[in-house]
Amino acid sequence: MVSSAEQLRDSLDAIAAMEPGFVAAMEEVVDMEAFYAYVAAEYWIGQNDGYVLNRNNNRVYFDPLDGRAKFISYDLDYA
């Protein structure tokens, strides 16, 4: 079974093939490892009202230590 994080990585790889440098550019702005963990956690707990399945109930925090974006989930109605 392919995990959602693997599917996301595959999608980014496909985009990178079309747009060279896309993944590297995203990694400068977004903490991708934290994002993959965030996506996996939302699927694991069944959060169908969050960012992954509904683009809802999340905030983006820019960490002052590395300047990259991190996603924060809130209002876990259905999880």
Structural class: alpha+beta
Based on DSSP secondary structure assignment, what is the total number of beta strands?
A: 2
Strand content: 5-15%
Please state the overall shape, judged from the principal axes of the Cα atoms: globular
* Number of helical stretches of at least 4 residues: 4
Low-confidence stretches: none
Distance between the termini: 22 Å
The residue fraction in helices comes out at 40-55%
Could you give a quick summary of the protein structure above?
By secondary structure, the chain is of the alpha+beta class. It has helices spanning 4-18, 22-29, 32-45, 51-54; strands spanning 58-62, 69-73. 52% of the residues lie in helices and 13% in strands.
Summarize this structure as a short list of keywords or feature phrases:
4 helices; 2 strands; 13% strand; 79 residues; alpha+beta
Descriptive account of the structure:
By secondary structure, the chain is α+β, with helices and mostly antiparallel strands. Helices cover 52% and strands 13% of the residues. It has four helices and two strands; from the N terminus they run ααααββ. A two-stranded antiparallel sheet has the order 1-2. Strand 1 (58-62) and strand 2 form a beta hairpin. Helix 1 packs across helix 3 (32-45). The longest helix is centred in the first third of the chain and has 15 residues, at 4-18. The mean pLDDT is 80.
